[in-house]
Amino acid sequence: MPRHLLSAGDLTRESALHILDTTERIGQAIAGREVRKLPTLRGRTVVNLFYEDSTRTRLSFEAAAKRLSADVINFSAKGSSVSKGESLKDTAWTLQAIGADAIVCRHSSSGAPHQLSGWVDGHVINAGDGTHEHPTQALIDAFTVRKHLGDVEGKRIVIVGDVIHSRVARSNVLLLSTLGAQVTLVAPPTLLPKGIESWPVTVDYDFDRALAGVDAVMMLRVQRERMGDAFFPTTREYSRQYGLDDRRRALIANHGIVMHPGPMVRGMEISPSVADGPGSVIVEQVANGVIVRMAVLYLLLSART
């Protein structure tokens, strides 16, 4: 394991598989327990440092740390000295002074967790930085694929939607390709980043063609809050060309799964009948998020450094 988890690119195939295998063992260890807790990180302190609003990720990391018996401190930029102008560096020194063993950082600026890792002695986990990366979400998605399809290697996976603003897409491309998956990105040209030709993916603008017989399809939310301009004509037009409905759902393999990192915009990128229908593992991704993050915290904090 690397000292920090800042990018999915930090993980080799071996270290990624080690995390996924550890996740499986942790899931087996707490399955059926009346009290789903392990004493592994008793006496350790985990700080959730969130500069952006979050529901799934923040709650997931908090639950993961508590189930490992760690002490958890939740820090929100709203209502803190950050609103008075305190810098990230000064906040880092405060966390260092209180003895944070691990800091889970979500920030609106790309690269903020990388900076933070240079200012503290504890381990830093990137919980999403700007439009850069979200490595634990990629691990969750890889674990979900492996759980349903047996392995990630050789699987055909299509990622659809707002790629240019998606940190989830970037981390998934890095991790899934490292694990041997064949990844295809589908989006209008305006929602693909510059330099996409250097990514280890295939790009297709025809959603129907890309879906034929694939093992998994991952839909992405259109992140309007990050858009200063119009990237497509209308919501209706986007949904018609790049939305996953029942007709398109029938194009993927019979064993294929439907994924979404959330939050979903039902009726735009995915229809309610597909989101809640057979083969949808969207709710399971949230449940898997807790044990994947338990594995990450355990491996980082129990490593000898």
UniProtKB/TrEMBL annotation:
<feature type="binding site">
    <location>
        <position position="137"/>
    </location>
    <ligand>
        <name>carbamoyl phosphate</name>
    </ligand>
</feature>
<feature type="binding site">
    <location>
        <position position="106"/>
    </location>
    <ligand>
        <name>carbamoyl phosphate</name>
    </ligand>
</feature>
<dbReference type="InterPro" id="IPR036901">
    <property type="entry name" value="Asp/Orn_carbamoylTrfase_sf"/>
</dbReference>
<feature type="binding site">
    <location>
        <position position="263"/>
    </location>
    <ligand>
        <name>carbamoyl phosphate</name>
    </ligand>
</feature>
<feature type="binding site">
    <location>
        <position position="167"/>
    </location>
    <ligand>
        <name>L-aspartate</name>
    </ligand>
</feature>
<feature type="binding site">
    <location>
        <position position="221"/>
    </location>
    <ligand>
        <name>L-aspartate</name>
    </ligand>
</feature>
<comment type="function">
    <text>Catalyzes the condensation of carbamoyl phosphate and aspartate to form carbamoyl aspartate and inorganic phosphate, the committed step in the de novo pyrimidine nucleotide biosynthesis pathway.</text>
</comment>
<dbReference type="Pfam" id="PF00185">
    <property type="entry name" value="OTCace"/>
</dbReference>
<dbReference type="GO" id="GO:0005829">
    <property type="term" value="C:cytosol"/>
</dbReference>
<keyword id="KW-0665">Pyrimidine biosynthesis</keyword>
<keyword id="KW-0808">Transferase</keyword>
<feature type="binding site">
    <location>
        <position position="262"/>
    </location>
    <ligand>
        <name>carbamoyl phosphate</name>
    </ligand>
</feature>
<dbReference type="GO" id="GO:0004070">
    <property type="term" value="F:aspartate carbamoyltransferase activity"/>
</dbReference>
<comment type="similarity">
    <text>Belongs to the aspartate/ornithine carbamoyltransferase superfamily. ATCase family.</text>
</comment>
<feature type="binding site">
    <location>
        <position position="84"/>
    </location>
    <ligand>
        <name>L-aspartate</name>
    </ligand>
</feature>
<dbReference type="InterPro" id="IPR002082">
    <property type="entry name" value="Asp_carbamoyltransf"/>
</dbReference>
<feature type="domain" description="Aspartate/ornithine carbamoyltransferase carbamoyl-P binding">
    <location>
        <begin position="3"/>
        <end position="146"/>
    </location>
</feature>
<dbReference type="GO" id="GO:0006520">
    <property type="term" value="P:amino acid metabolic process"/>
</dbReference>
<feature type="domain" description="Aspartate/ornithine carbamoyltransferase Asp/Orn-binding">
    <location>
        <begin position="153"/>
        <end position="300"/>
    </location>
</feature>
<feature type="binding site">
    <location>
        <position position="134"/>
    </location>
    <ligand>
        <name>carbamoyl phosphate</name>
    </ligand>
</feature>
<dbReference type="GO" id="GO:0044205">
    <property type="term" value="P:'de novo' UMP biosynthetic process"/>
</dbReference>
<dbReference type="GO" id="GO:0016597">
    <property type="term" value="F:amino acid binding"/>
</dbReference>
<comment type="subunit">
    <text>Heterododecamer (2C3:3R2) of six catalytic PyrB chains organized as two trimers (C3), and six regulatory PyrI chains organized as three dimers (R2).</text>
</comment>
<comment type="pathway">
    <text>Pyrimidine metabolism; UMP biosynthesis via de novo pathway; (S)-dihydroorotate from bicarbonate: step 2/3.</text>
</comment>
<dbReference type="GO" id="GO:0006207">
    <property type="term" value="P:'de novo' pyrimidine nucleobase biosynthetic process"/>
</dbReference>
<dbReference type="Pfam" id="PF02729">
    <property type="entry name" value="OTCace_N"/>
</dbReference>
<dbReference type="InterPro" id="IPR006130">
    <property type="entry name" value="Asp/Orn_carbamoylTrfase"/>
</dbReference>
<feature type="binding site">
    <location>
        <position position="57"/>
    </location>
    <ligand>
        <name>carbamoyl phosphate</name>
    </ligand>
</feature>
<dbReference type="InterPro" id="IPR006132">
    <property type="entry name" value="Asp/Orn_carbamoyltranf_P-bd"/>
</dbReference>
<protein>
    <recommendedName>
        <fullName>Aspartate carbamoyltransferase</fullName>
        <ecNumber>2.1.3.2</ecNumber>
    </recommendedName>
</protein>
<dbReference type="InterPro" id="IPR006131">
    <property type="entry name" value="Asp_carbamoyltransf_Asp/Orn-bd"/>
</dbReference>
<feature type="binding site">
    <location>
        <position position="56"/>
    </location>
    <ligand>
        <name>carbamoyl phosphate</name>
    </ligand>
</feature>
